[in-house]
Amino acid sequence: MKNIKYADLHNHTTASDGIFTPNELVRHASTKGLAAIGITDHDTTDGIYEAQKAGKNYGIEIIPGIELNTQEDKFEIHLLGYFMDYNLPWFQDILTKIRDSRYYRAQKIVNNLVNIYGMDLEFEDIIHKAGGRHNIGRTHIARAMIDKGIVKSIPEAFEKFIGEGCKAYVKRYKLTVPEGINMIKKAGGVPVLAHPGLISDDSIIERLISYGILGIEAYHSKHTYQQSQKYVELAEANGLIITGGSDCHGDSSPMVGDIVINYESVNELRRIAKLS
Ligand SMILES: [Zn+2]
Ligand SMILES: [Zn+2]
């Protein structure tokens, strides 16, 4: 059993809404004995370089990845991409467009929170929460709300104030699922459906498969055992790669390495990426 290698293929860093810098994340991963970790920040690949440098130090392989929030009807569908040639200028241009839209959307949400609820929040607080970076998401707003004692947790902030359907919510530019899949494939990467258990309706998963995803994240920190089993079967029935990851953001649980997958999945992702 000792020489089985494991990977955690879903992690966030300070390049998006994670708490750990890429270096800190890799250092934590090294204490878990992982062979590889995926860096899958939202809409940015900026954390990959630092992670790869740290990976050399700590003896961990870094799998370049991304997480894109796409839209299918009323559902937000998260797509993971692995092994893209992410430095392609057109690829980075699309990410910049998405991040700009996040940034201006965050400004509007904060305005709404102030104007509708009279909350004591300033956009500067949110930028501070994002470490001065401009890759701002609603998680950063939620963390600033926790600091001010407005809510107690990130889920509470989303349920009451900033989630879809809430008064302060603002839509932003999003790719459709086929657009996201094509973007990852065109850059030579492998598109994987992230945490299908968090989509409230299983019946659309077959449709997402028909769009050309090549893998399913069957193992995820928010999946029940039964869900994981179901998605493993679905992946096997459709000839898709099975992946897994903790979705570590560093706040509390889950921690990097809490959900792992056999390293064989990394080999499969790499093999498929080479074919495209
Ligand atoms: Zn996600
Ligand atoms: Zn994630």
Model description:
Helices cover 42% and strands 17% of the residues. By secondary structure, the protein is an alpha/beta fold. It has a domain at 6-88 and 190-275: TIM Barrel (Alpha-Beta Barrel). Strands 1, 2, 3, 4, 5, 6, 7, 8 and 9 form a 9-stranded mixed β-sheet that branches. 47% of the residues are buried. The mean pLDDT is 95. The structure holds zinc ion (ZN) (2 copies). The site of one zinc ion has 5 residues, from loops.
Question: Short summary of the structure?
Answer:
By secondary structure, this protein is of the alpha/beta class. It has a domain at 6-88 and 190-275: Metal-dependent hydrolases (TIM Barrel, Alpha-Beta Barrel), CATH 3.20.20.140. It has helices at 22-31, 48-58, 89-117, 123-129, 138-147, 154-162, 177-186, 205-210, 225-237, 264-275, and strands at residues 6-8, 36-39, 61-72, 75-82, 175-176, 190-193, 215-220, 241-245, 261-262.
